[in-house]
Amino acid sequence: MIYNFELEKQLLAGLIKEPDTLAEISNFIGNSDFYSKQSSLHSTIFRVIQQAINSGDEIDEVIIAQRVNDVGLSFEDNLNPSDYIKSLALRKVPDGNTLKTAKELKKYSIRREILESSQDIVKKMKNMASEASYRHIIEAADNIYNSRINLYEMGNDIPENIYEDMEDLIEDRGNNPVTEFGMMGPHEKVNDIYGSLLRPGNITVIVARSGVGKTNFCMDYTTKVSLKYDIPVLHFDNGEMSKEELIMRQCAALSGVSMHLLESGKWRQAGKEVVDKVRSVWPKIKNLKFYYYNVGGMDVDSMVNTLKRFYYSKVGRGNQMVFSFDYIKTTSENIANKSEWQVVGEMVDKFKKCVQKEVLHDGNPVIPMITSVQSNRYGITNNRNSQNIVDDESIVSLSDRITQFCSHMFILRNKTADEMETEGGRFGTHKLINVKSRHLGSDIAGAIEPVRIGDALRKNAINLDFNNFNITERGDLRDIARMLDGEEELDTDGVQETIPEFDQF
After folding, report:
1. What is the pLDDT of residues 355-366, one digit of tens each?
2. Which of 116, 131, 137, 461 lies in disulfide reach of 431, CB 3.0 to 4.6 Å?
């Protein structure tokens, strides 16, 4: 069954009796949700009621009937709209039942949308040229089906008094404390200071110069999160890295065997210990829920459709996943009448809309996104002296649009020569510096209080060690300050120097 006239009558009767309830349903119920193949009467009545309410007019059956007559439509069986609307007004409708009725009616509308989408796909496939590529075939189906996906979620998009249930919310949270907001990554300092970088609907951006390791960081981070929570990761690559290279990098990171030995195939001749290391990580890699997709040359609409299709078909509604995109730059959409910042701006806006407004469960976002972007050359000096390095959002290419759409933004850079001399290798090879945080972790002081290094006050930073595509945390700037002051030394006991240990997850 694809329609239910009794539900339609009940909803209209409820609106006549309680016009204020329109505000509860107007974000997901419209004219098209009333079945009109046999008669447009119900959709016409709804439109008239909606217009009257929005205009602040009085609502009763006489006024509604007159306005329906004024539309000038002819109805089947010489139906008298006045008599019909009067019968609706006389219906018994339980108080406060309109929202429930609207949700039930929406199910029938969804069925019709799915049926129509399926029929459109059949027509499209029959008329498609025989030389069409796999991608064109799939994208055509995506464009038809996913164009209606947002209709299947009934989010709370209407203005509301957010404090109405304040006491219940806070009391309930007090009775049921939350230990994690979103999924926690593999770096304890990052978790403590900045909280989860992977809250559903949030977008984390890693900014770095080419060759610094932003791809390595995102891959390492999402891989370890996938292992910890046993959830899928969808990784979009813009065409700069093949799936073979990705496999080699993950194998190198997990085994501790050099990338050169793996890529050249000489690992087989490097001795039993190396061979055992490589083969020992194969089960872990094969069990990873890590999905790779080359989006080089694709427009952003096709990317978004691919993300939606993956979530609904592979992950399932309400389940967790992570979306990783390497990296934000201009695409095939870059046309002559658009500047680079316009193209990228539209791109990031569509991804933001997808993870925050379109892919929902019970009205809430479910997908966190982590991505990267190239930095410009501002602040990168020839001598690479730490005092001359600029660690703020001014180095972010297209910074206005990028900064606006993200929840977290970090700069990732190599340590300068004087930083390596001062700190030594024990504090790693890279720094991760936060430039924007929409939320923080338990260690708020670590995020907002400057750190004194000698005579200078500096923004706190996380120390990371990049070793053969494996990334480990080596404390923050406060640890370095304590070491330089001779107060204490950084505890590096148990830190894996080569082979990471994932069994803890």
Report:
1. 998 888 877 899
2. 461
